[in-house]
Design a protein that fits this description.
- The protein is of the alpha+beta class and 502 residues long.
- It is 27% helix and 23% strand.
- The chain is built from 13 helices and 23 strands.
- Strands 1, 2, 6, 7, 8, 9, 22 and 23 form an eight-stranded mixed sheet that branches. Strands 10, 13, 14, 17, 18 and 19 form a six-stranded mixed sheet that branches.
- The radius of gyration is 24 Å and the shape is globular.
């Protein structure tokens, strides 16, 4: 936070920091309410969209408001704490309103069931919606609905412009200082600032501060989420919530030359396991969000908890898996929407040659290559093979249809990394999408929406973040546009007395 700059470079009624589903929803709503809107986006134009663009592009739509409230409370469990009944009501009501709002923007909904926790009361309210027909993802909601709506309104966006600090005067947020391609600029908000700049997936210091058991973890989505909104919120006295809650970890692959982790295709061949640094299995291997792993939460002694990540973790498999298809050719996350950052070979041979995948003629020799105890890995594989032959995983309950003996040499191992879908924490917001200060009162003229300060405190229903982006994006946009203009405190001109960009 800095004091009021002597002059301003830009101004608008509503300044939106971050261009994803949340930011665009704020912008569209505020614009339609008569406000002049300016977007600040940290990424280059070709990388805009954050996690929204590279997500599954589907969202959770509750078809019944009362059941949605029941389901939300079941998901939140003992972590409800300061999520008020009023907040739950607003969340459920606005999530239900998403469908009509998006259809008005041109969405053609394809509906299917998808309760992630069908055993919970209220889960029968869950419907998943996509734009049009086709597989999950493909940016269809982003390109087919959000982008055309933004273009039709000609909402201006400054790209490669990272918000650095909020400007506070007489207790009110009246603007943003940003770094525009290495130049510091001051941007005046005549009515309000709305933070929609995501989480802290690519900020190692925040990861170590707020998350336990994850000494290293990488984003599977945008690499531009570095906790900027959290830092700025702290600077103006915001209360934080849900900082330890994440969608993850999942286990993907991270190459040094690629900025994000790559989604792993679990092959049609089923002879594979995940092992920890001691050479022993630790989970029911499978696709992210399968029946045993629900967005990084697993059941342990009958209770849900975050999936442990006993790194180093290795994906161990045999020749059948190697030949079954490309393990690292993504169909989700950042890689798909940004030019396929790496073209994985169809038979995984190139990756063996690069050393990303280790190869050995025996399991014991493979153990030596990945520095795990040979006796332990040998025993782990033998135990798994027994489960495969009996069609029952007695340790972790992996689906019998996904079991096959790991017995066809040569054998392979690829190191996996814990990876984020996203973080949920950030400045606490209230039912009006206002950011709440440590004193329990709203920080005047400051709003938020999306994954930054998400309402989700514990378990998570797939598509819930995108639904929340739309729901609280509309709330923030409406309320920000209705703020009375701030008094004129300086004119728009070049900023000459501000600190230089670092």
């Amino acid at each position: 936070m800095i004091e009021v700059p002597p002059k301003w470079d830009e101004e608008a009624d509503v300044i939106v920091v971050g261009y994803g589903f949340a930011g665009s929803t704020v912008a569209i709503t505020a614009h339609d309410a008569g406000a002049k809107v300016l977007m600040l986006e940290k990424a280059p134009e070709e990388d805009k969209g954050g996690n929204s663009r590279v997500s599954g592009n589907l969202f959770f739509w509750p078809n019944d408001i009362e059941k949605a409230k029941t389901y939300f409370k079941a998901l939140t469990g003992p972590y409800k704490d300061n999520i008020s009944e009023e907040m739950v009501q607003v969340w459920a009501t606005e999530m239900h309103a998403n469908r009509a709002w998006l259809e008005n923007l041109g969405m053609k909904p394809t509906e299917f069931s998808g309760a992630e926790f069908p055993e919970f009361d209220g889960s029968d309210c869950v419907q998943m919606l996509m734009h049009g027909d086709g597989p999950i993802g493909e940016e269809r909601l982003w390109k087919g609905v959000t982008e055309p709506a933004m273009a039709a309104r000609q909402i201006r966006t400054l790209y490669e412009t990272a918000a650095v600090s909020l400007v506070k005067d007489n207790g009110e947020i009246i603007g943003v200082v940003a770094d525009e391609r290495g130049k510091r600029i001051a941007v005046k908000a005549n009515r309000a600032v709305v933070l929609t700049c995501g989480g802290f997936e690519n900020n190692p210091t925040m990861i170590h501060t707020y998350l336990a058991g994850l000494p290293r973890i990488y984003p599977a989505g945008t690499p531009y989420n570095t906790g900027d909104g959290i830092r700025m919120g702290i600077e103006v006295g915001a209360e934080l919530w849900h900082m330890s809650n994440i969608a993850g970890p999942e286990f993907f692959f991270k190459a040094p030359e690629i900025p994000v982790s790559l989604y792993i295709n679990h092959p049609h061949a089923k002879s594979y396991i995940f092992v920890a640094g001691d050479g022993i299995r630790f989970t029911a291997e499978g696709q992210p969000c399968h029946e045993s792993d629900r967005h990084g939460k697993v059941k342990y002694h009958g209770i849900w908890m975050q999936q442990p990540a006993p790194i180093p973790i290795h994906f161990v498999f045999d020749e059948n898996v190697r030949k079954a298809g490309p393990i690292g050719k993504s169909h989700a996350c950042w890689d798909v929407s940004h030019g396929n950052l790496y073209n994985w070979s169809d038979d995984n041979g190139r990756e063996v040659d690069k050393g990303w995948i280790k190869k050995a003629n025996t399991v014991r020799d493979l153990a030596g290559l990945i520095d795990v105890p040979p006796d332990a890995l040998d025993a782990t594989v033998a135990r798994f093979n027994t489960f495969a032959r009996d069609s029952k995983d007695a340790d972790y309950g992996r689906n019998a249809g996904l079991l096959a003996a790991l017995q066809t040499p040569p054998y392979y191992a690829m190191e996996l990394t814990p990876s984020f879908i996203n973080t949920q924490g950030g400045p606490r917001r209230n039912k009006d999408a206002r950011v709440i200060g440590a004193d329990g009162k709203p920080v005047p003229r400051l709003y938020s929406a999306g994954e930054l300060g998400s309402i989700y405190a514990f378990l998570y229903q797939g598509g819930g973040n995108i639904g929340e982006c739309f729901a609280f994006g509309r709330i923030a946009g409406r309320n920000a546009a209705q703020e009375k203009p701030v008094k004129n405190r300086s004119s728009v001109a070049a900023v000459s007395a501000m600190p230089a960009a670092e």
